């Protein structure tokens, strides 16, 4: 602004200054654009990036004499991928081990490495579903470390004995815990608790809240069928989120839990394993989303060590997989807006493998177009639910290639709508070889107008 004002006053001298201050431009030529929504790519197009936003998408030549030109060589230009349910801070190997032994340094170092891994896998945005506050985002956005745009949820909010109760077995209610001290998980057993710790999450840098409404399979105290939280408590979480113009994501398995959540105003159903067409109708009426970790439907799930070696977990897994058998078919029959979810808790190397396998299962179950939409534009809609005040990235849309959207861009060999493997899928989960730092077929990764990978030259 300053340079422009001076420019008006001092003519020639100042237009040189204005040119110096002009935002940098990058011009992608000779690309086929997947815009995040449509099966039909925009063929033989050019895309002009100015600063951190997309300025022009056109099938005509774009005149930008000062731009850095990148010849896409007929590759696919896609929005950067969006992960809508990760836990970057949780390194494993188990929740009790982290409660007993992990310090803020362990969590912080793991989160830093996870953030870089996600970016290099093509994910330019990650929503964290519990266990992270605002620090990692500040470091990424300040350019201190490499990582995606980041939407943390603060501490998991959950009831005593529920899916966010990470205290040791003999720990009495309300006792101080490692996860509680670090605001990574909080026990909430009343409307007042939900309000206090919900507000504290936003204070600590959360962009939305995460409420644990159901139990889990490989966790200690909670049946997966648990209906945690009274209607008043869930409504209190929604009310606190609304104070900040944001929303609640709820870990929900049972149908009653999902319906309660939707009726209370929850906008993002996590897992939602009892999904059916009645739920789909209510979701669409309420403008809600679901995120799916499809590895839960992997045929080999009952053989993985964390499940098979613990009799109570194996029993829970068997009853859950019987109840959830209709999930994929119901979702094909009654489609809803669905976000990509990996939900990995473990080493960076293991999560890299799990992400690649989750991509593959998306394509196996739903085909390439739905999977690409899930990985891009639907994720962008989900993170934007954080609203005008809490969204750290409010200047443009995410997950789409259109004028005015953020310049989060991948150049991919081939056409993922015909051969989905080019997005970096993996054929194996447990026992798979370590994966490369970045898929070879993803040739260029741009986030916020800055290039983090380019193997075109
Ligand atoms: Zn999770």
User: Can you give the mean pLDDT?
Assistant: 93
Q: Which fold name fills CATH's third level, the topology of the domain at 81-390?
A: TIM Barrel
Quaternary structure type: single chain
Please give the count of helices.
Answer: 17
Biggest sheet architecture: 7 strands, mixed
CATH superfamily of the domain at 81-390: Metal-dependent hydrolases
- The proportion of residues forming helix, as a percent range, comes to 25-40%
**Structural class per helix/strand content?**
alpha/beta
- Tell me the β content: 15-25%
Task: Count every beta strand, where a strand is a DSSP E run of 2 or more residues.
Answer: 17
Strand order of the largest sheet: 3-2-1-4-15-16-17
CATH class of the domain at 81-390: Alpha Beta
Low-pLDDT runs of 5+ residues are: 1-18
CATH architecture of the domain at 81-390: Alpha-Beta Barrel
* General form: globular
Radius of gyration over all CA atoms, rounded: 23 Å
| N-to-C CA distance | 36 Å
Ligand list:
zinc ion
Summarize the structure.
By secondary structure, this protein is α/β, with parallel strands linked by helices. About 35% of the residues lie in helices and about 20% in strands.
